Amino acid sequence: MSEPDRPPQPLIVTLAALTVVSGFLDAVSFLGLGHVFIANMTGNVVLIGFAAAGAPGFSFMASLCALGFFLGGAVMGGRIAQRVRPHRTLMLLVMTMEAAFTTAAAVIAGAVPAIDAGWPRFTVIALLAFAVGLRNAAVRRLRVPDMTTTVLTTTLTGLASDSSLAGGTNPNASNRITSVVSQFGGALVGALLVLHVGAAWSLGVAAAIVVCAAAFFYREAPVGLGLA
User: Fold this and answer.
1) What is the pLDDT of residues 177-194, one digit of tens each?
2) H/E segment holding residue 198
3) How many domains does the chain have?
């Protein structure tokens, strides 16, 4: 298996943890907030189309809210990235912000009877989508192949089209597999928590994972992260 220019392991671990969080957030949003995505913006564009066509069970405004706040977060993330040049500092700042937004969403989810309607629904969507937009803007600056923390379509395409079955040499195969497994695991555990103990627990665990990832990232020297 060929692994050209594989990024340092601590950086992969951090991005894998954030990918797990994406699975948690989409589990909460799709199962608890009513057929809307937080990390998967391709899905929201499709859901907006379904809602615009009048398909039952889909909310035009909820998906549009998620998309709009995600883009707002990405704009702010881009602005921050222009001013915070060291990538390590940028990631630490963005992970801290994501942990704060996710914790706020967990508090709201735990304080209200339900989060699938009214102001709690749109507030939680806005907080989480904005946080993921911030994170995506920062992660994009790292340029780690196949470790975007949210998007898997291109990753899966590369995994199949570059495989030995397709006559390829499997470049970045381990990054790609790590991304897929991480998001699947996050979605699985997140869904179990939403279905059996509540969305607040799933969001709380997601926030804790971001905090742990940030602490791990902070302990690593820039050279060990490949960000010197």
Assistant:
1) 999 999 999 999 999 999
2) none
3) 1
